[in-house]
C-alpha cells in the first residue's frame, strides 16, 4: 500500500490510487517533498493543501507564489536556480518595464506571466482559485491534486520594526531584512477551508497527513489559521506527521531560523515539534539531529532530510511513507 509498486498493473503502468496522502505545504521546500511523493506514489494518490497567505496583487495581476511553485515543480517546469518561477524563462517584460521606470522588485518572467494573466482574468470572471488551480494542473499534466487552503482572501502581514509590510514586500523587496515582531494573517478569521480541502480530508482513501518541511511560521501557520482547518486535520483520523525544516540550528533554505530567533524561539527541530505539539502524531527528524530524538516525546523517524537531488526527494518521500505506515 501507499507505494507506486502497489499501484502498478501487470503491464507495469500505474493504476489509480486506492490510498491517498495529503500534504500541507508552502512553496519551495514543501514542493520538493511533494515531487518526491508524486514520483513514488501511485497516480492520483497525492493531494496537497497549499498556503495562499503569500498571494498578492502586483501590476494588476493576482500572484499566488506557493501555488505557482507547486504547479511548476510537479510539472517538472520549475526554475531550480531561482527556486521560484519557470525553467527556460525569458525576461523581456521585466526589461521593458525597467526601461519605462516601472516597478521591478518583483520579477515576472515572460512565460510565468501567462499563468498570472490567465488566473487573474478567470478570478475576475467569478471562477474560484481551487477550480483554476485544478484546471492549470490538468493542462500541465500533473496527476496530483493541488488545492488552495481557502478560496477566500488571506494575506500574511509582517509586523517589523520598520512598520507593517505585505508578505512579498518583506520577503522579496526587503529580502527578509527587517526583524519580525509579529505575523498576522489578515482575513483568516473570515476565511473558510476550501471545499476541495474539506473533501480531501474526509476522503475514505486518506491514510496519512504530512506537514511539509516548509517554514512553520510563514507557510504552515497561515493554513492552520483558517478556522476549522486544525479540527479538519485532526478529524481526518489518520496519522499526522511533520517533516523537519531544520537541520541542527539551520534551515535548509530561507529565513526560518532568522525569524525563529526574532520571535524569541530557539532555532531547532525541537522547537518545531513544540510548535506543532497537539497537532502531530510523529516527527521526521534529520539523522544529524539524532541526539535530540529522545526529547521529542512522540514517535520519531530519522532520515537524511536534505533534498538536493531528485533521488533525495524520492528517498525522503519513501522515509515519510514508511513512517506513516508504521505509526
Ligand atoms: N521570489 C524572489 O525572491 N524574487 C522574485 O522576484 C520573485 C518573483 C516571483 C514571481 C512569481 C512567483 O510565483 C513567485 C516569485 N517569487 C520571487 C517567489 C516568492 O516570492 C517566494 O518564494 C514565496 O512567496 C515564499 O514561499
Descriptive report:
This protein is of the alpha/beta class and 327 residues long. The protein has one domain: Rossmann fold (3-Layer(aba) Sandwich), CATH 3.40.50.10680. The protein contains 12 helices and 14 strands. Helix 1 (28-40) runs parallel beside helix 2 (65-74), helix 1 crosses helix 12 and helix 4 packs across helix 5 (129-139). The longest helix is centred in the C-terminal third of the chain and has 17 residues, at 310-326. The chain starts with 19 loop residues before the first strand and ends with a helix. It binds ligand FO1. Ligand FO1 binds next to helix 2 and helix 6.
Give a quick set of tags describing it.
7-stranded parallel beta sheet, 3-stranded antiparallel beta sheet, Rossmann fold, alpha/beta, single chain, globular, binds ligand FO1, 327 residues
Structure in a nutshell:
With 327 residues, the protein is an alpha/beta fold. The protein has twelve helices and 14 strands.
- Share in β-strands: 15-25%
CATH superfamily: CofD-like domains
Order of strands across the main sheet: 5-2-1-9-10-13-14
Number of helices: 12
CATH architecture: 3-Layer(aba) Sandwich
Q: What structural class do helix, strand and pairing data support?
A: alpha/beta
List the helices and strands and how they pair.
Blueprint: E1 20-25, H1 28-40, E2 46-50, E3 56-58, E4 61-63, H2 65-74, H3 92-99, H4 110-124, H5 129-139, E5 145-148, E6 155-160, E7 163-166, H6 167-173, E8 180-186, H7 195-202, E9 206-211, H8 216-224, H9 229-235, E10 240-243, E11 246-247, E12 250-251, H10 256-262, H11 269-276, E13 282-286, E14 300-303, H12 310-326
Helix pairs in contact: 1-2, 1-12, 4-5
The structure holds ligand FO1.
Amino acid at each position: 500500500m501507499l507505494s507506486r509498486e502497489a499501484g502498478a498493473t501487470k503491464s507495469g503502468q500505474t493504476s489509480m490510487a486506492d490510498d491517498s496522502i495529503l500534504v500541507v505545504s508552502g512553496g519551495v521546500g514543501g514542493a520538493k517533498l511533494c515531487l518526491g511523493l508524486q514520483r513514488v506514489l501511485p497516480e492520483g494518490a497525492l493531494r496537497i493543501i497549499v498556503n495562499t497567505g503569500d498571494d498578492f496583487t502586483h501590476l494588476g495581476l493576482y500572484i499566488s507564489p506557493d501555488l505557482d511553485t507547486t504547479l511548476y515543480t510537479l510539472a517538472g517546469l520549475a526554475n531550480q536556480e531561482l527556486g521560484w518561477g519557470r525553467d527556460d524563462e525569458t525576461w523581456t517584460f521585466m526589461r521593458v518595464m525597467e526601461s519605462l521606470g516601472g516597478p521591478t522588485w518583483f520579477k515576472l518572467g515572460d512565460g510565468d506571466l501567462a499563468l498570472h494573466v490567465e488566473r487573474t482574468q478567470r478570478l475576475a470572471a467569478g471562477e474560484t482559485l481551487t477550480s483554476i488551480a485544478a484546471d492549470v494542473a490538468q493542462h500541465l499534466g500533473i496527476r496530483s491534486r493541488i488545492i488552495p487552503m481557502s478560496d477566500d482572501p488571506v494575506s500574511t502581514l509582517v509586523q517589523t520594526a520598520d512598520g507593517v509590510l505585505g508578505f512579498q514586500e518583506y520577503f522579496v523587496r526587503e529580502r527578509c531584512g527587517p526583524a519580525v515582531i509579529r505575523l498576522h494573517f489578515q482575513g483568516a478569521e473570515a476565511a473558510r477551508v476550501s471545499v476541495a480541502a474539506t473533501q480531501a480530508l474526509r476522503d475514505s482513501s486518506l491514510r496519512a497527513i504530512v506537514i511539509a518541511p516548509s517554514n512553520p511560521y510563514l507557510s504552515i501557520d497561515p493554513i492552520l489559521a483558517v478556522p476549522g482547518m486544525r479540527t479538519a486535520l485532526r478529524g481526518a483520523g489518520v496519522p499526522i506527521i511533520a517533516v523537519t525544516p531544520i537541520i541542527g540550528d539551520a534551515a535548509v533554505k530561507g529565513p526560518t531560523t532568522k525569524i525563529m530567533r526574532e520571535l524569541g524561539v530557539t532555532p531547532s527541530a525541537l522547537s518545531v515539534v513544540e510548535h506543532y505539539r497537539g497537532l502531530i502524531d510523529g516527527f521526521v527528524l534529520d539523522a544529524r539531529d539524532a541526539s535530540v530524538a529522545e526529547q521529542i516525546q512522540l514517535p520519531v523517524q530519522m532520515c537524511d532530510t536534505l533534498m538536493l537531488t531528485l533521488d533525495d526527494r524520492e528517498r525522503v518521500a519513501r522515509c515519510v511513507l514508511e513512517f506513516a505506515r508504521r505509526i
